[in-house]
Amino acid sequence: MVVLAKSIQLAYFDVTKVGSTSVKETLWEMEFGRPFRGKGIDRLLHHIRWQLARRKLAKPRNIHEVEGFRCTVFGLDEVPEMFTKIAIVRDPASRIRSAWRDKIHERQFRWRSEELDVENEGLPLNPTFGEFIDHFEEYRSISRPARVHTTPYVWHLGGDLTYFDRTFTLERFDDFESFLREQSCRKVNLKHANVAPSEKRDDSLTSNQVDKLFEVTRQDYDLLSSIYDIKKAKRRFQL
């Protein structure tokens, strides 16, 4: 889904694990003049609110559940004329690793009541990055966060980047921040809304696992070939 920031005539097409929560919350504040307050202060209440919000009995618990800010399949008929269409991308293999670090662990599975499904498939609840890549399809079939946060770029952005007026990268996030300042003529400070768990987990890969990671992401690299070089990216993961 495209997020429309009408005050600055901006159309933002989000991609999971590419700073989308930070960007959406920033655009919300620019539109409504106040911070987004969909998060509860207590994690248990946060979860209860999520369950109630699914049934439309409570306000959404996070920005991705708000009407107009949800993440849905790319479409061409939603952007008014004169709006600047933008996308933000990141190195595809790094995006998959970020999804593993943030979403593929025991706390997340238990939080979503998915731990029995994971265990019943004989999969570890706290997989290394290599184990996640070895069983990439199985984790995606069981876990919604695993599936949502590894969705191919084409699902989010369509098959042609020339559709967008501007494409920014997460690696140069300050460029997007400067762009927002220019568009809005006001001070903009993008904050990291989601922080991955602090504990160190094994993110090493065998050569076969590197090969599979780049098989999984090949479609993404094809779409983003003008920005990321798959050969250079693969060499970084082979080190």
Describe the model.
This protein is of the alpha/beta class and 239 residues long. The protein has one domain: 3-Layer(aba) Sandwich (Rossmann fold), CATH 3.40.50. The protein is built from 13 helices and 4 strands. The chain has a 4-stranded mixed beta sheet, covered by helices on one side. Strand 1 and strand 2 form a beta hairpin. Helix 11 packs antiparallel against helix 13. The chain is globular. It starts with a strand and ends with a helix. The mean pLDDT is 86.
Domain count: 1
What's the number of extended β-strand segments?
Answer: 4
The largest pleated sheet is described as: 4 strands, mixed
| Head-to-tail CA distance between termini | 37 Å
Q: How would you sum up the global shape?
A: globular
The CATH class is Alpha Beta
Strand content: 5-15%
CATH fold-level label: Rossmann fold
> Strand sequence of the main sheet, in spatial order?
1-2-3-4
- CATH architecture descriptor name: 3-Layer(aba) Sandwich
Order of helices and strands: EEHHEHHHHHHHEHHHH
Number of helices: 13
| Range of helix content | 40-55%
Mind telling me the C-alpha Rg? 18 Å
Mean pLDDT: 86
Task: Output the structural class.
Answer: alpha/beta
Report low-confidence residues grouped into runs of 5 or more.
none
